[in-house]
């Protein structure tokens, strides 16, 4: 009897599922996986939007500055064109004809490097010009820049309390200042509490806004740098 059962088992094997069913099952798995990925992506985007909405304005500005650093030159170029168009529409001239410079950055360093930490010469007014190669902020009322020109660098400390602009105008203006911009700074000499030589700005004049910091950084020729460091900055 056992032999009969064995024969029956051999003669009637269990049939495999059709190949189309296997493919259909794999397709369903893939579709489910893609759907889960899409849901996860949407969830992360919603969390990011909620986080941005709950962040204070200063934190949003910091994030915006970080995004600029990671942005590719083409996208940066497009964003800068939009910024320039916004300035022009508001009646602002992004390309002032000239800016008077009282000394070069190297002359500034030589003259005021001997100041002690925390010293502020608020009764002395100086004007410098150069290229902003770094931007930092601790709040919407306090920004730091590194101003470069002809082999020298000095920190710019922009504090809303010392600015000629009101707080709203100050925050709006500095949120539009970008790394790579050539600017004129009017302020007074001093050193931070940590001993870093700085110019404490009262006014920052935009003289030339770069379209792409990666490409345009190479364009600061000797001629243009001499213009930056001369007695008059012309464009």
From TrEMBL:
<comment type="similarity">
    <text>Belongs to the class-II aminoacyl-tRNA synthetase family.</text>
</comment>
<keyword id="KW-0547">Nucleotide-binding</keyword>
<dbReference type="GO" id="GO:0006430">
    <property type="term" value="P:lysyl-tRNA aminoacylation"/>
</dbReference>
<keyword id="KW-0436">Ligase</keyword>
<keyword id="KW-0067">ATP-binding</keyword>
<feature type="domain" description="OB">
    <location>
        <begin position="126"/>
        <end position="204"/>
    </location>
</feature>
<dbReference type="GO" id="GO:0005829">
    <property type="term" value="C:cytosol"/>
</dbReference>
<dbReference type="InterPro" id="IPR012340">
    <property type="entry name" value="NA-bd_OB-fold"/>
</dbReference>
<protein>
    <recommendedName>
        <fullName>lysine--tRNA ligase</fullName>
        <ecNumber>6.1.1.6</ecNumber>
    </recommendedName>
</protein>
<dbReference type="Pfam" id="PF01336">
    <property type="entry name" value="tRNA_anti-codon"/>
</dbReference>
<keyword id="KW-0648">Protein biosynthesis</keyword>
<feature type="region of interest" description="Disordered">
    <location>
        <begin position="1"/>
        <end position="72"/>
    </location>
</feature>
<keyword id="KW-0030">Aminoacyl-tRNA synthetase</keyword>
<dbReference type="InterPro" id="IPR004365">
    <property type="entry name" value="NA-bd_OB_tRNA"/>
</dbReference>
<dbReference type="GO" id="GO:0000049">
    <property type="term" value="F:tRNA binding"/>
</dbReference>
<dbReference type="GO" id="GO:0005524">
    <property type="term" value="F:ATP binding"/>
</dbReference>
<dbReference type="InterPro" id="IPR044136">
    <property type="entry name" value="Lys-tRNA-ligase_II_N"/>
</dbReference>
<dbReference type="GO" id="GO:0004824">
    <property type="term" value="F:lysine-tRNA ligase activity"/>
</dbReference>
<feature type="compositionally biased region" description="Basic and acidic residues">
    <location>
        <begin position="33"/>
        <end position="52"/>
    </location>
</feature>
């Amino acid at each position: 009897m056992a032999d009969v059962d064995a024969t029956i088992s051999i003669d009637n094997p269990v049939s495999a599922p059709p190949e189309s069913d296997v493919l259909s099952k794999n397709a369903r798995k893939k579709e489910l996986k893609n759907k889960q990925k899409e849901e996860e992506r949407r969830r992360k985007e919603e969390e990011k939007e909620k986080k941005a909405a709950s962040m204070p304005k200063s934190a949003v500005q910091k994030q915006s500055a970080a995004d600029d650093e990671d942005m590719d030159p083409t996208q940066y170029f497009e964003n800068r064109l939009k910024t320039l168009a916004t300035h022009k529409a508001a009646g602002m001239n992004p390309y002032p004809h000239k800016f008077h410079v009282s000394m070069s950055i190297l002359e500034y360093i030589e003259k005021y490097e001997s100041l002690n930490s925390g010293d502020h010469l608020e009764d002395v007014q100086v004007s410098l010009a150069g290229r902003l190669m770094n931007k930092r902020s601790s709040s919407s009322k306090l920004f730091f820049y590194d101003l470069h020109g002809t082999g020298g660098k000095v920190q710019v400390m922009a504090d809303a309390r010392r600015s000629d602009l009101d707080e709203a105008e100050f925050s709006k203006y500095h949120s539009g200042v970008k790394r790579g911009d050539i600017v004129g700074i009017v302020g007074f000499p001093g050193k931070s509490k940590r001993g870093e030589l700085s110019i404490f700005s009262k006014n920052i004049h935009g003289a030339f806004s770069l379209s792409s910091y990666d490409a345009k950084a190479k364009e600061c020729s000797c001629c243009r740098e001499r213009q930056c460091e001369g007695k008059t900055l012309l464009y």
